[in-house]
């Protein structure tokens, strides 16, 4: 689905539904707008249920100031107009009140997007606008002034966040990524000190090549077609379960030998379809409008060195990744199922997935199917796509339990004799 080819009314209704269903606004909160090529401002209405918005509910304000539609436009439309006035390069604006970003606004701090590479790349540094009366002219002036300084995301003091972009899709990606970053930092703060990436480390991800030599596909087996469907459905499932977000998460599955399928880069995980998947054969990619994930070389190395691996997933599941940006051990020896499914989870240095895939391949084994990549993601392997996905899910449930246990008391791992009993009974 190419959402940007749709009418602004449809685009706004669609993305407001995404914001609401992903739990990032309330029935009455938030507003989205698009500035079209004719200078019209399309904006969500005031006092209409955000969970049931239709294209017919969207309002239009013409360049002459005429208001067209069956409702009142959002009371915040003055600051949307002010932003577009200061930033003609922006064509979409999104304002909402996700709890994690509101929490930052209440304590008057901005999330440090340098904790994970894609947050820094997509959101950049976050601006901060001082408080003013919601819906008032002064609030618009405050926000527009910060956007005029070049920021793409602006936190509003004691209020929420505003993001802008060249399209609503780009704007939504910034918004969702920043919200994920804020949630990640909040979870990690309960674990202790968090690590941030320096400019040199950030450049590792930014300069990673996604292109490969190409080949033309002459035929596709029924197995490949089935795996394409399974892979795209599993990634969309991971997104719906909030184990991946729209801009981050990679999955692959082996077809046979050194041939595997992998998800593309720069494709919204919510919209992933079977035809978007990229086939890789012996270091070459099929001719396709989409480029394969930047993790392709790592996945290729793992498949080459481990015949038992049939699927790989890397996901920035929020609770697991909190351990990846902290200095606290992710101790799976606290829950029997977790230890059986995940085993011990080593942490590898940031950048290993790009600069040292051999090290990861040497760490992964049948007895070590899961690792954490520092300041990046959880990586799981499996003998099937379902097993690799299950390990992501179990890891995040486990990490969540550990984080929620911290206010209750000291975490207590199982004794060695109990672990040995588990190994003897289930890990023969």
Which structural traits does this protein have?
428 residues, L-fuculose-1-phosphate Aldolase, 15 helices, 17 strands, 39% helix, 16% strand
Task: Break the fold down into its secondary structure elements and pairings.
Elements: H1 8-21, E1 31-35, E2 41-43, E3 59-61, E4 67-68, H2 77-86, E5 92-96, H3 99-106, H4 117-123, E6 127-129, H5 137-148, E7 153-156, E8 160-165, H6 168-189, H7 199-206, E9 214-215, H8 222-240, E10 250-256, E11 259-262, E12 278-281, E13 284-286, H9 296-305, E14 311-315, H10 318-324, H11 336-342, E15 347-348, H12 352-355, H13 357-363, E16 370-373, E17 377-382, H14 385-405, H15 416-426
Parallel strand pairs: 6-7, 9-13, 15-16
Antiparallel strand pairs: 1-2, 1-5, 2-3, 3-4, 5-8, 7-8, 10-11, 10-14, 11-12, 12-13, 14-17, 16-17
Description:
The chain is built from 15 helices and 17 strands. The chain has 428 residues and is α+β, with helices and mostly antiparallel strands. It folds into two domains: 3-189, Class II aldolase/adducin N-terminal domain (L-fuculose-1-phosphate Aldolase, 3-Layer(aba) Sandwich), CATH 3.40.225.10; 211-426, 3-Layer(aba) Sandwich (L-fuculose-1-phosphate Aldolase), CATH 3.40.225. The strands form two sheets. A nine-stranded mixed sheet has the order 9-13-12-11-10-14-17-16-15, with helices on both faces. Strands 4-3-2-1-5-8-7-6 form an eight-stranded mixed sheet, sandwiched between helices. A hairpin with a 5-residue loop joins strand 3 and strand 4 (67-68). Helix 4 packs across helix 7 (199-206) and helix 6 crosses helix 10. The longest helix has 22 residues, at 168-189. The termini are far apart. The mean pLDDT is 94.
């Amino acid at each position: 689905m190419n959402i940007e080819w749709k009418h602004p009314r449809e685009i706004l209704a669609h993305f407001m539904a995404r914001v609401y269903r992903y739990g990032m606004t309330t029935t009455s909160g938030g507003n989205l707008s698009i500035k079209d090529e004719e200078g019209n401002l399309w904006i969500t209405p005031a006092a209409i249920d955000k969970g049931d918005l239709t294209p017919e509910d969207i309002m239009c304000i013409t360049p002459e100031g005429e208001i067209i539609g069956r409702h009142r436009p959002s009371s915040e439309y003055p600051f949307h107009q002010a932003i577009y006035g200061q930033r003609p390069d922006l064509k979409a604006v999104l304002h909402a009140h996700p709890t994690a970003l509101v929490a930052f606004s209440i304590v008057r701090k901005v999330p440090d997007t340098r904790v994970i590479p894609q947050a820094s790349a997509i959101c950049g540094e976050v601006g901060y606008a001082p408080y003013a009366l919601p819906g008032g002219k002064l609030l618009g002036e405050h926000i527009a002034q910060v956007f005029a300084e070049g920021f793409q995301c602006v936190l509003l003091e004691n209020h929420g966040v505003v993001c802008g972009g060249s399209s609503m899709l780009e704007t939504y990606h910034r918004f969702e990524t920043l919200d994920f970053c804020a949630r990640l930092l909040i979870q990690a703060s309960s674990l202790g000190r968090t690590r941030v990436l320096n400019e040199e480390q950030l450049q590792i991800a930014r300069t990673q090549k996604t292109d490969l030599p190409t080949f033309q596909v002459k035929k596709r087996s029924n197995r490949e077609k089935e795996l394409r469907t399974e892979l795209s459905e599993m990634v969309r499932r991971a997104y719906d379960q909030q184990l991946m977000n729209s801009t981050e998460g990679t999955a692959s599955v082996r077809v046979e030998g050194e041939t595997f399928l992998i998800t593309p880069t720069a494709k919204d995980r919510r919209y992933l379809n079977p035809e978007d998947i990229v086939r890789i054969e012996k270091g070459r990619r099929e001719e396709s409008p989409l480029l394969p994930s930047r993790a392709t070389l790592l996945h290729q190395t793992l498949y080459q060195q481990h015949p038992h691996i049939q699927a790989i997933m890397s996901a920035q599941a929020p609770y697991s990744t909190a351990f990846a940006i902290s200095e606290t051990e992710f101790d799976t020896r606290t829950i029997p199922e977790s230890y059986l499914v995940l085993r011990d989870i080593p942490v590898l240095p940031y950048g290993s997935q790009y600069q040292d895939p051999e090290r990861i391949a040497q760490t992964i084994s049948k007895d070590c199917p899961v690792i954490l990549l520092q300041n990046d993601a959880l990586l799981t392997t499996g003998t099937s796509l379902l097993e690799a996905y299950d390990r992501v899910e179990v890891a995040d449930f486990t990490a969540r339990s550990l984080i929620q246990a911290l206010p209750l008391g000291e975490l207590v791992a199982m004794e060695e004799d109990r672990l040995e009993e588990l190994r003897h009974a289930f890990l023969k």
